[in-house]
Amino acid sequence: MPKVKNKYAGIDSIKIIGVTQLKGGSGKSTVATNLAVELSRVGFTMLIDADPPQNTAECWDVIRNEKHYPIGHQAGQAGDIRLECAADDTALLSILRNADIEGVKYIVIDAPPRGSRVTKVIMGISDFILIPVNTSAADIWATYDTEELVNDEIKERKNVKARLLLNRFRNFTLSAHAIKKEAKKELSIPLLSTTLGFRVSYSEAMAQGKGVSETKDKKAQAEITKLTKEIVKLMR
Q1: What is the structure's pLDDT at 178?
Q2: Which of 49, 26, 212 is closest to 131 using CA atoms?
Q3: Could you give the CA distance from residue 124 to residue 120 in angstroms, rounded to a whole number?
Q4: Is it true that domain 15-235 has CATH number 3.40.50.150?
Q5: For the chain, what is the largest distance between any 2 Cα atoms, rounded to a whole number of angstroms?
Q6: What is the pLDDT of residue 99?
Q7: How many angstroms separate the CA atoms of 190 and 173, rounded?
Q8: 207: left (phi > 0), else alpha (psi -120 to 50), else beta?
Q9: What DSSP state is assigned to residue 190?
């Protein structure tokens, strides 16, 4: 694996990022794995796959370990990620009780695409709730239920941050910018300034057990770097 530099200095305690969206197909696992790779550059990162039976993040991690971090390597090195699977809210909370003593600095949770107890628990423990939304009118409308749950959580915990992330964004089209404008108008949760483009490198990196920052796609690399910096800044 290539050497990496500390681009995200400033977080010195455990931070939990819940990547959640009740609508399926929003790209949660892609966002979660790429974010975990970036955060692992500066601290031992745990990625929790709380989305059975799909367990996309777990499959990605198996490939990653086989190709890049074989059994026996020194855990905690830059780019290394500890993967845990949580079948339900009880398993999730059990994992989190041990996170601090294991030296984990950052936790990214890939939530299930449905309303369940584990979804509510993820929202309740996250410092930052990240909601990927595909760039289409239908996906904006389908986010209303997620928005309602998040706003209920914000009422309970004023310090929690929540943001929408426009995914598969075609910056060169008028329709994408029209959808972005509609999202700002229709949804109360703010949009991140970062958007993720509709790039084949995201799916290719997933299939290879990588983040796009470990590929040759400079534009995708820049997007994930910007996304991570923006989230880190908001969590401070």
Answers
A1: 93
A2: 26
A3: 6
A4: no
A5: 51
A6: 73
A7: 22
A8: alpha
A9: P
Say yes or no to pLDDT of 191 above 80: yes
Helix, strand, or coil here: 225?
Answer: helix
CA distance 113 to 143: 11
Enter the DSSP assignment of 103: T
The ranges assigned to domains in the chain are 15-235
Residue carrying structure tokens 């681009």: 7
The sign one gets for the Cα dihedral 205, 206, 210, 211 is positive
User: Is the pLDDT assigned to residue 5 strictly greater than 50?
Assistant: no
Quick: pLDDT tens for 69-127: 765 555 556 667 899 999 999 999 999 888 776 778 899 999 998 877 899 999 999 99
- Side chain identity at 79, as an amino acid letter? G
Give me the helix-helix angle, 117-125 and 89-97, nearest 10°. 30
Amino acid at 116: S
Helix (H) or strand (E) holding 148: helix 144-156
